[in-house]
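Quick one:
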Amino acid sequence: MKMQFLSLSVEQWSQIGISALIVLVTIFLGRWLVKFILQRVFRALVKRAETSLDDAIIQALFPPAYVLAIVIALNVGVDRFDFIPGVWQGRLGDIFYVSYFLLVFVALWRIIVFVTKWYSREIAPKTETKLDEQMIPLFIRVAQIVLVLVALIMLLGHFDVDVSALVATLGVGSLAVALAAKETLEDTLAGFVIMIDRPFRIGDRIEIQDLDTWGDVIDIGLRSSRIRTRDNRMVIVPNSIIGKSLIVNYSYPDTQYRIQIHIGVEYGTEIEFAR
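Output:
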């Protein structure tokens, strides 16, 4: 007769002990191992670019990666238990799936936050326009909303929940928002194009021929740009109008330019005197 304690045999208790040892070793050594792997991987990827992007990514990934190592150790340890009933094995499998899923979700969430913070701290101050600084909060919100929606659909799909109605609702809602904010979206997309194409910069003297307006560019915003005219008036022009208009930049490629003025003279005036 085999010896038992709390309805478990010696062999089963030994399996529990080995599994507990695996988890304890991961807890104590996993922090160092995860940090070492992240540093080797990401610093090797960005070693040619002399930026602190790798530090931002490592800082974002380290906490969820360390917890992920512990969860993997727990999963390995539990898989060694051959005395767990089949029903509990299925439930434990779902628990570990949700744990992995949440850790990946947290890691992606933190990457979005830390990389955008790094960009706003290291790159945005060096650009000539403030448009990218204004776009960062919008980008963070859009990326986080998309991440939440995709994660929710994937998680519900794993548990055999019909997500077709949810996807259809999201599609109709997105279409309604797009139609309601049509002009705002046009201005925002035009702002993106201005930021990338850079037909003019802050401080340039430009002319918008379709509006018969010209002056100095004071600010390039997310939805509109501000131009100070020659008579010191501030003209606020939506970016979508600028994108559709013909722009004459008098400051590019050279700040020196010629002004042509038509002057009328009376008939009979001597040509040399008129000159």
